[in-house]
User: Fold this.
Amino acid sequence: MRKSHIALAAVATLMATAGAAHAASSVTLYGVIDGSVEYVNRASTLPTAATQSVGPLFRQPFAGGLSSSRWGLRGLEDLGGGLQASFVLESGFQADSGQVQSSTAGMLFSRVATVGLNDANNKITLGRQTTSITDGLVNFSPMRFAATYEPGIWEMGVNYRENNMVKYTGNFGPVQAVAHYSFGTGAAAFALGSGTVLANGGAGETPGNWKDNTAWGASVMYLDGRFGFGLAYDQWNPAVTTGSTGKVVKIGAGASYTTGPLKVMGGYRWNKAEFANGNALIRDGYWWAGVNYQATAALAVQLGYFYADIREARAPTVAGSVGPGTNPANPYQLNLTLDYNLSKRTDVYITTAWAHNGALAFDSVYNAFAFGYAAAPGQKNMAGVTTGIRHIF
Assistant:
């Protein structure tokens, strides 16, 4: 009888140990699927096409109306003493075709691939992740960088996600501080044009030329439920030729105020992107303002205004372009979104946008036509509407 008691006690101890180990580690599968149908009144094929086709565009866009579709794995292990190890692997895909996100073909985890350590307030992560300026300003964006129509890449740059990054995130009550350094962003070009394709595919980490395609930045954000403020700096050193770096600098600030169902926000971002010879590819100031209103428990309304003051721009056709700078017409855009929650995980929406002096989402050579819109020669206005379903799991 005593031996059986000992055996039962041993089994119970093993089961308790296994349960504690299981409780200390976790892996979560998560994701978003956003599918939509879109109509644009007048668009053109991209300038890189052999022939141009101009007219109405009716399609299922590769990016959802509110969110880019993605799936991911998030893991956490308790190391004791308040220290945890974590990882995130997140892959983007096209909801209309099921293909891996087109702009990052060949990258399985194109959105996030990190491993790190953290305690209650501090986190260090290594791998592919978003920049500090993105983290610091996203909460002041009228549509939270909606995948369709909001000029988020114009604001943050094509390098808003970077490879080879070491990143620090600190959370201290209502204050978040972020700083990062990338040894090579992995962005292949800093605009669309033969003069902006980067050496070694933008990978960086070049022997003898450590600065090639590196980047760094920092941000600080305050959010207390009513007031919010963010300030951020971002620098990228793209090298078209090995050992010869240009410089792209962005400085931004945003603010918000929330009262009851109403949130108002706005901000400004200064930008200068220049070749290694000092000639500016583009200099601009970008302004935005918006209103979010929770009209009912299920219905949310978002309104946004976006304006770019382009002070100087050059056609990116030759490395270190020496052509004269131009001062093109300044684009601006209005967005309206109605988002209705069918449940906590599923919503339906309709978004409409109108742009003047440019394409929707400010699509141009300067954001590498990230959304696939191109204005026809001489076109002044472009309007679009998209409606869809989003499910979060």
